[in-house]
Each structure stands twice: as structure tokens, then as C-alpha cells.
């Protein structure tokens, strides 16, 4: 299990925005990771999420989002799902 935390402060924001990533591999034989993104302090009605399509220093387009499976969004309680839509191959709006 790996966890990372990033904190952003915006002059337009009234609070600190904290982003937590949780990465787990509960079934290593599947070669799949479970990645959870938790955003705290977000006050806008919509959240725009994007994944990069390339790696710095590499000239190849990698399109990491094509490997994403079972995307979902909730309030922090899995039984309270949030509506979302995919706008592009690497772009989601929650």
C-alpha cells in the first residue's frame, strides 16, 4: 500500500485543498492496481479530472487512461455515488 498527499493553497479558495492518493494491489496475480483519489476542501459544484497522455522526457504518447477500469465517484461513502461523465479519452467531469 502506498499513500501520497498533496496540499494546494489558492488565493481564490477559502480553504486548503488536500488531495490524497491511495494505491493498493489486493490481487497481485491480476496485475491490477486499485487507485483511490480523495479530494478534501473542494467547494465548486463540478470537479474536472484529467490524466496525462505522455511522460516528461518521452516523446511517445502513452495514453494511460486507456488502462483505467471501473471508474466511479462518490461522496466518501460508496453508497452515495456522484454523477460523472467522460468528456475525452483522458478527461472526466464529476
Number of strands: 6
- Could you state the order of secondary-structure elements as H and E? EEEEEE
Low-confidence stretches: none
Could you tell me the mean pLDDT? 87
Q: Estimate nothing, just give the exact number of structural domains.
A: 2
Radius of gyration over C-alpha positions, nearest whole angstrom: 15 Å
Number of H- or I-type helical stretches: 0
Shape: globular
Helix content: under 10%
Separation, N- and C-terminal Cα atoms = 26 Å
Strand order of the largest sheet: 1-2-3
- Proportion of β residues? 25-35%
Q: Characterize the main sheet.
A: 3 strands, antiparallel
Determine the structural class based on helices, strands and strand pairing.
Answer: mainly beta
Task: Give the SSE map.
Blueprint: E1 2-8, E2 17-24, E3 34-40, E4 48-50, E5 85-88, E6 91-93
Antiparallel strand pairs: 1-2, 2-3, 4-6, 5-6
What labels describe this entry?
mainly beta; 34% strand; 94 residues; 3-stranded antiparallel β-sheet; globular; 2 domains
Report on the structure:
There is one protein chain. This protein is mainly beta and 94 residues long. 0% of the residues lie in helices and 34% in strands. Strands 1-2-3 form a three-stranded antiparallel β-sheet, with no helix packed on it. Strands 4-6-5 form a three-stranded antiparallel β-sheet, with no helix packed on it. A hairpin with a 2-residue loop joins β5 and β6. It is globular, with a radius of gyration of 15 Å. The two termini are 26 Å apart. The mean pLDDT is 87.
